């Protein structure tokens, strides 16, 4: 599957997220500096609202999460699972930085785990 050029790396806030629209889907891209880039579906499965890119980043139980701004569910940036509700999860996307540009590989299947530059 081909990669889609999203933005210049400098457009990503440090330890924060941005929203992007690719192939009729909203995604959230997070820049966690040394920990890498992460991309997930931007839609909060608990509410159906597209806002996870505005969530707070935190570490819980040795994993990295984004907390939904509405009801504060925590979604893992490494496996997509919600820590509060095992029935909720978000789709992950492969993301990389190359020559100062951020690229995302859209997929219709969840990625079990990913690392920066995959």
From TrEMBL:
SUPFAM superfamilies: ISP domain. Keywords: 2Fe-2S, Iron, Iron-sulfur, Metal-binding, Nitrate assimilation, Oxidoreductase. PROSITE patterns: NIRD (PS51300), RIESKE (PS51296). InterPro entries: NirD, Rieske-like_NirD, Rieske_2Fe-2S, Rieske_2Fe-2S_sf. Gene3D superfamilies: Rieske [2Fe-2S] iron-sulphur domain. The keyword Oxidoreductase applies. Residues 3-104 form the Rieske domain. GO terms for molecular function: 2 iron, 2 sulfur cluster binding; metal ion binding; nitrite reductase [NAD(P)H] activity. GO terms for biological process: nitrate assimilation. This is Nitrite reductase small subunit NirD. The gene is nirD.
């Amino acid at each position: 599957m081909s990669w889609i050029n999203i933005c210049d790396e400098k457009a990503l806030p440090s330890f924060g997220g941005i929203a992007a629209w690719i192939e009729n889907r909203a995604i959230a891209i997070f820049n966690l500096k040394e920990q890498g880039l992460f991309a997930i579906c931007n839609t909060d499965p608990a509410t159906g609202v597209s806002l996870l890119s505005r969530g707070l980043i935190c570490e819980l139980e040795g994993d990295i999460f984004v907390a939904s701004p509405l009801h504060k569910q925590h979604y893992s940036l490494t496996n997509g699972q919600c820590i509060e509700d095992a029935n909720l999860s978000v789709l992950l996307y492969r993301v990389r930085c190359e020559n100062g540009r951020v690229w995302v590989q859209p997929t219709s299947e969840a990625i079990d785990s990913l690392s920066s530059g995959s």
